Amino acid sequence: MAVDVPEVTTTSIASSVTLVAPASPKVGAVLDASFEELLEDPRVSTSTVVEYISSRTNATSSVYIYDLAEQVGFGTLTKIWSKAQAGTAPVIDLQTRAGAGLSLVGRLSEGTSSDTANGAVLTAFTSPQGLSLMAPALSYLPPATASSRLVVQVPNITPTGESFALSPTLASFATVLPILPENIVILASATSQETVHFTQLSYQLSGSHVVHIFDHFSSSRELGQGTFSLPEKDYGNLSVSEAIRLAGYSCFEYVGDAEAHTVVLALNGPLAVAAKAIANKTRSGFAVVSVNVLRPWDEAALRSVLPVTVKTIHVLDDVPNTTTKGPLYIDVFSTLLDSSNPPVVHSHRITPSQTQIYVSQKDSFKSFLASFVPGLQDPVPAIMKKLMFFGTPNTTLSDLPLHVEGTLSTSKSLSSRLSIDHDVFSKRGGITASRILLAPRSALDSVDIPIPIVLPFDAQTHGEVDFLAILDHTILKTHSLLKYAKPHSPLLIVTSWTAEELFSNLPSQVTKLILERELRLFIINVTDVAEKLISTSGGNQNVISNIVAYLAFMRMYLGGAATEENVLTLAIGLYGENVEGVDLAKLNSETWDALEEVLITQAPAEDKPVELKEFEFNAIAIETDDGDTVVNGAHLSSWHDAAKHLLFPSIFNPLSDSTDEEFPQNPSLRPELPERTYLVTCTVNRRLTPKEYDRNVFHLEFDTSGTGLKYAIGEALGVHGWNDEQEVTEFCEWYGVDPKRLVTIPVPGSEDKFHTRTVFQALQQQIDLFGRPPKSFYTDLADYATSKADKYSLQFIGSAEGSSTFKKMGEKDTVTFADVLKLYPSARPGIEVLCGLIGDIKPRHYSIASAQSVVGDRVDLLVVTVDWVTPSGSPRYGQCTRYLAGLQIGQKVTVSIKPSVMKLPPDDTQPLVMAGLGTGAAPFRAFLQHKALLHSQGKPIGPVYYYFGSRHQSQEYLYGEEIEAFILDGIITRAGLAFSRDGPPGVKKVYIQHKMLEDAQDLARMLKHEQGVFYLCGPTWPVPDMYEALCGALEKYQGMTKEEAGDYLEGLKEEERYVLEVY
User: Fold this and answer.
1) Could you tell me one molecular function GO term of this UniProt entry (predicted)?
2) Which 3 state secondary structure label does DSSP give 590?
3) Are 216 and 98 within one domain?
4) 96 within a domain of the structure (yes/no)
5) Please, which residues have CB within 8 angstroms of residue 927's CB and are 6 or more apart in sequence?
6) Which residues pair with 758 in a beta bridge?
7) Is the entire prediction scored with pTM above 0.70?
């Protein structure tokens, strides 16, 4: 077994050498496979086998699939089988919520279901969190019978922390275990073989309800491990402990020194398996007990497995926090309390954050055990080889690790295991990490240590991987991945870049790491090789590309034994002499010539380090029978899914937090937003400028009654606008997507909340289809381009070299997401993927033009439509102003409140100087309304200087009648009105800064001696002129120098007495 590279001739950074490799079959469809074929096929995961067993009509009458199970990749295949495969039980979808388990109880209760009379063995799929929410309802389960019972299959994997990293913690289950009824059997399995057998036992224990918790964090998703079926015996009339024993297991498995003095006891799971592997290697004085049957708790069985030499027992309990008592500790303590010479029992409360450390940091769990059991041995064989592949989902080479493992798994002397994990949060479209462990079967113990324990995604790693492959070069610019490579190990990068381009695009810290660890860097352009060979054969480019990449891998894997002839012989045995019309000998030769070793001979120039992201396991992908890969997240669905939400709102609608609010938040109204949202009604939409005028400035009023919306003077209203209906319709037609199909999109920041809308509704109301794309969108979209020209163009625009092109497209051409898709038509991801790539429409904020103390349940806005023409002559419109301009009376609008710097001073007698240009008059209307209210109540108010500027008084004197009334009533002390286009031809235009100069002495006095406050709202261009006018006033009338005046205004900013809100 070799994972080094052959001796080759190397040159400088642009040098080329030759290398090669074969490929393995893709994971096949399981639709027509028999149970025996699924068991024996190492390319089929154990979780697939669990779904198969649990969905057969000879085992269950119905399968209830809760959303949380499917979100962690369990249940998707059962749904497919139920539609297409005879012998599959009917499937019912359910949403997780408190009390949802009552539907299962109702189905099993006598007299409530027609199924009960005919026999109803119900199966439910849920997650640990879902089980904890079901637990209170399960206390109402009727007694189990052979024809009426419940089996719950629980894949043990849970999102944790702020980043929703997936973890094997059972902390959520700890608090509800005590309330589960005694008539429920709880089984826990950790290895692939245990999981298959315990699943079968779940349906053989005919006198019990059963909850089976199995490891879905690692073992049940691994590929490469064939299993065998439970021996056919009569388990039905036996007790649980007898059935477990007959199946070849025990309630408590003891591993380690037969005369141990220290024992670690834990529920069967990945950490328990790791502990058993350590105990099996260490032996001396140390042992581990894993709990296979948590309920019913068999005290006699536990006492019988513990040797009399045991002095100390350390009990590991998953708990949500350190103040929660571990249920396992309570069981163990009470069992041993009455012993004549009881051992000391220590409780170790393992919180989710600790569990995450143990599965993500190398040797951290062994170090934890070593704190009370010194001298522990490393259970991982030194001869074991570790391979790692990083790529992106649903791209050409996403199947390469399956090809690699599929071939290696055919070896009788070699053990290989593959785990595939996804990170969908740190990069649009996601990143896939595939880990393969290889070892001679003779070197392995009986315990398979979970892959995450052997090879974790450790951010602090010093290099553990013997072979590292990067299947998408773009992720090296965003993620820290090369640190996993062991010093002097081979590194393969599949890239369309030349060696020089690669070197110039890699972040400096990545290049430095290659030099420091002396990695042997090889690159290959598999697309070029594939295209060259299929141009005449017409073969499938994806298939050929995977074979090319596999040939490159095998050349490196075989090390010194690799010759062109050897690799060709191996490849012919796998694929035959011809693949997709391409001669394999020719393909092998071309690949051999295309593999290039790159020597980096000097450190890169010092530059500012790029902050690289870490890979974090937070999503699971399921391969369906039709070859598609579904990563938990956005997906297309049918009207049936929506109908369930409408017919059963109590189950599917999100629960609101209990509150005493008179107007509680609607949990379905933009749940992804952190701020409170409200649904208000448009009552006035009135244009203020003449129709023939080229600027449409309009006044809006919204009724807020019954919403609980409150706002302060000067705050802004966030409007969640919609895209134009006609443009969305045209896009759907061009993109070839049915606008009536449903799309379900995850709510950001929530593991169990989703938006379900029609495609049309999503594109109109949620997805920022006509917004300006960031640079990352071009790079992400390139992954989906089938045209070489489109792919390279998108990659170029998204690269550092394409900055000028990106800037031109964004600032001059003002392209939208939709425009980019039309410019590069071969890049066409599925609509559900596209929604994730684009993201949501952001709210646009407008200064509120009313004081709630005056108008009551109403909020007013002053808006001007934004439109322009691109260099190509296409008209463009501001997304939200276009939406607001088209509002009809009675139309509902989703809004939120945003705090603003435009606040009134605490003392009503402080002078106010307000300068507004165009729609910048909005907040000052609110100020003046409030001042008028105080004046009407006989309260003193300070001087108010109001400056307003626009082009023409006759067309754009916004709220002119109100302003004149405020002047007559004495609310406005001095009004400086500047209409720049109303002067005679040839005369210098007058702006509001000129009006301010007329009052310079007053302004200087108020700002310097009377605690006056200056406000400016409007565009940014007059800011320097305003600043100069105020500085000049302070110089002339307060005796300041220019520098002192500038410093004084800067000080006013700190005091919130020089306030700018410009855009």
Assistant:
1) sulfite reductase (NADPH) activity
2) helix
3) yes
4) yes
5) 713, 714, 851, 904, 912, 914, 944
6) 742
7) no
Integer-rounded Cα radius of gyration of the chain? 35
Instruction: Give the span between the Cα atoms of 130 and 114, in whole angstroms.
Output: 27
Q: Pick from 370, 405, 428: which residue ends a domain?
A: 370
Q: How far apart are CA 646 and CA 759, in angstroms?
A: 18
Sheet holding 385-391, edge to edge: 414-423, 431-440, 385-391, 467-470, 490-494, 520-524, 596-598
Residue among 794, 786, 788, 869 at smallest CA distance from 826: 786
How many alpha carbons fall within 13 Å on the CB side of residue 463?
18
- Beta strand ranges found along 403-556 (DSSP E): 414-423, 431-440, 467-470, 490-494, 520-524
Whether 124 maps to a domain, the answer reads yes
Domain with residue 330: its CATH number is 3.40.50.920
Same domain for 1035 and 919: yes
d(CA 780, CA 365): 37
Rounded Cα–Cα distance for residues 199 and 51 (Å):
9
Q: Are residues 212 and 66 in the same domain?
A: yes
> What CATH number did the domain enclosing 73 receive?
3.40.50.970
191 and 309 fall within a common domain? no
- Please state the domain count of the chain: 3
Distance CA 919, CA 697 (A): 8
CATH number of 960's domain: 3.40.50.80
What are the strands of the beta sheet with 974-979, ordered from one edge? 974-979, 944-950, 912-917, 1013-1018, 1058-1062
Q: Which of the 8 DSSP states describes residue 465?
A: B
Chain centroid to Cα 746, Å, comes to 9
Q: Looking at the structure, do residues 216 and 315 belong to the same domain, yes or no?
A: no
Q: Do residues 160 and 85 share a domain?
A: yes
**Contact 934/908 with Cβ under 8 angstroms?**
yes
Give the three-class secondary structure for 193: helix
Q: Is 257 within the bounds of a domain?
A: yes
For each successive 10 residues of the chain (1063 residues), what is the average pLDDT?
41 27 37 77 89 93 92 90 88 81 82 52 94 90 90 94 86 88 93 95 93 96 85 84 94 95 96 94 90 96 95 95 91 88 93 93 93 88 92 83 82 86 81 92 73 93 94 90 95 90 86 92 91 71 87 86 83 80 88 90 72 90 50 49 47 49 62 75 94 91 92 92 92 91 67 70 90 89 87 88 88 90 91 85 92 94 88 83 92 90 90 92 94 94 94 89 93 92 76 90 93 92 90 92 92 91 85
| Per-residue exposure over 737-763, b if at least 16 CB sit within 10 Å of its own CB, e if not | bebebbbbbbbeeebbebbbbbbbbbb
- Give dist(CA 880, CA 888) in Å, integer: 15
Would you state the structure tokens that stand for residue 708, as one six-digit string? Answer: 């609980």
Question: In this structure, how many other beta carbons lie within 10 angstroms of the beta carbon of residue 287?
Answer: 29
| Neighbour count for residue 577 (Cβ, 10 Å) | 10
Strand partners, 347: 315
Residue 870 maps to a domain: no
Exposed e or buried b for every residue in 118-147, given b needs 16+ CB within 10 A? eebbbbbbbbbbbbbbbbebbeebbebbee
Q: Which domain does 290 fall in, by range?
A: 252-370
| SS3 labels along 70-101 | HHCCCCHHHHHHHHHCCCECCEEEECCCCCCC
Strand partners, 840: 767
- The span from the CA of 575 to the CA of 1004, in Å, is 87
Domain boundary among 312, 339, 370: 370
